[in-house]
Amino acid sequence: MPLKVDIYPKNLELTDRISQYVNKKVSKLDRFLGDIDEARVDLEFQKSMRNPADRQVAQITLRGRGYILRSEERSDDLLTAIDTAIDRIQRKIERHKGKRARGRGDGTPASEVAPAEAAPVEEPSETPVISRRKRFTVVPMDEMEALEQMKALGHENFFIFYNANTNALNVLYQRRDGTYGLIEPIIG
């Protein structure tokens, strides 16, 4: 079954030529990594960029079981940005496949490591407005894997992960001095 590619243009017109080009190129990524669940391509024209060579932006996001791979490239030509982003995501796929082949080390499946669901907490009557919610699958990993995933996704502020060593949710964040901090909550 061919990989379904979702294309989201912003500030540009998505022509049939561009759509076919993106579908042709991105659907070939399924050859490198067979368990891709979702392929998303964001194409954008940013006319406010100071450098004209950075106005065309192509971002490719691949989601699969337990991973998210993303690459973003800028160019003065949209097709060049797409090609460069595809080259970069292919390198990330190769790196991901190498890490995945090494595995977690102890052979314990994620279903055995995951804790039972906690009881829902009642919310107070006056709650602040939540403007956005995100849901994502949490895969057990160690601190170094979380740091690599944080860098691969381009998250600069923080990354939430399930620590396989402590069997708890942790938050990895970048400090002002360039080092990283780890928040390990204690339920008490």
How would you concisely characterize the structure shown here?
The protein is 28% helix and 28% strand. The chain has 188 residues and is α/β, with parallel strands linked by helices.
Description:
By secondary structure, the chain is an alpha/beta fold. It has two domains: 5-102, Ribosome hibernation promotion factor-like (Double Stranded RNA Binding Domain), CATH 3.30.160.100; 138-188, Sigma 54 modulation/S30EA ribosomal protein, C-terminal domain (SHC Adaptor Protein, 2-Layer Sandwich), CATH 3.30.505. The chain is 28% helix and 28% strand. The chain contains four helices and eight strands, in the order βαβββααβαβββ. It has a four-stranded mixed beta sheet with strand order 1-2-3-4. Strand 1 (5-10), helix 1 and strand 2 (36-45) form a beta-alpha-beta unit. Helix 1 runs parallel beside helix 2.
In terms of topology, how is this protein built?
Elements: E1 5-10, H1 16-27, E2 36-45, E3 56-64, E4 67-75, H2 78-102, H3 110-113, E5 140-141, H4 143-153, E6 158-163, E7 168-174, E8 180-183
Parallel strand pairs: 1-2, 5-6
Antiparallel strand pairs: 2-3, 3-4, 6-7, 7-8
